[in-house]
Amino acid sequence: MKNFRDQCTIDTCPLSLSYWAYRPSLAANGTFIGIFFLSLTLFICQGVLSKRFLGFTIAMVSGNILEVLGYAGRIWSWYNPFIESDYLMQIVCLTIAPAFMAAGIYLCLSRIVVTFGASNSRIKPLSYPRIFIPCDVISLLLQAAGGGLASAESHSNQSPDPGDNIMVAGLAFQVLTLLIFIGLATDFAVRTFLRVRKMGEEEALDPAHARLRASWAFKGFLFALAFATLCIFTRSVYRVAELSEGWTGHLISTQKYFIGLEGALVSAAVLSLNFFHPGLCFREGYEERAGWGFGKKRDAEMLHEEEKGPVVD
């Protein structure tokens, strides 16, 4: 079915009739696509150089590819905001991209637990990815399915609300998953702090990783991971609120909110993890023991740590 917007251009129709209700900023979106392309390149190079954290690298590369595609759609829409395909491409790609980045973040916590000592955690190290990665996959599938359905409905000149509702459900599940993750990570940090204060570092922490814990790179990585997690969480809360209003709501029709709460936050998250890439940060002070990528060495150490079991105070 033909859409009336197919006949529109910047010169012939008001922006209020476009898919956006505004003209996407060329400067802002050009900046974001440059940032994500740079981040994508860095993650590939860092993954090759570190030869570790393959899962993390794949997750971050996938997320950045989707970000680049999404902002390409926004840039093309600067030339003509009445083109449906560009609008649909950006809304789907930019909605699901941070789910991949969240997966990368989830993979890191088990390594952090092993570095400080599995006895400080309520659950075993490998339980973290086993819990949160499936949750992230569910969130991603809901968002992708909802985005596909909404796109098909929009293309058929039908209401995208059913598909949009599925996307919101996926995003809400992502927010819940991130909230639980933040809670467990905070609990681990508090328990570790209290046990160190009570027992001393030599008793409370794994002595095998003392050099790694003392390195500036590892400390920077901990800060970067916490910062990136909060950025992705805040962005996801915003997208739930935005899409809950539908595709014509106030939030989705106001560009400044998108720039500040989507583009800026996700950019900050990926760049912080570029500066403190886990594969490079864990290398300092931790060269010879089990590899922190994928393979028998890493699995052997982490399973050994699991055998110690969590301590329940």
TrEMBL record:
Superkingdom as given in the UniProt entry: Eukaryota
Subcellular compartments: Membrane
GO cellular component terms given for this protein: fungal-type vacuole; plasma membrane
Transmembrane region(s): 26-46, 53-75, 87-109, 130-151, 171-190, 216-237, 257-276
Principal location class: membrane
Keyword list, A-Z: Membrane, Transmembrane, Transmembrane helix
Topology with respect to the bilayer: Multi-pass membrane protein
Protein name (record): Sphingoid long-chain base transporter RSB1
Gene source species: Saccharata proteae CBS 121410
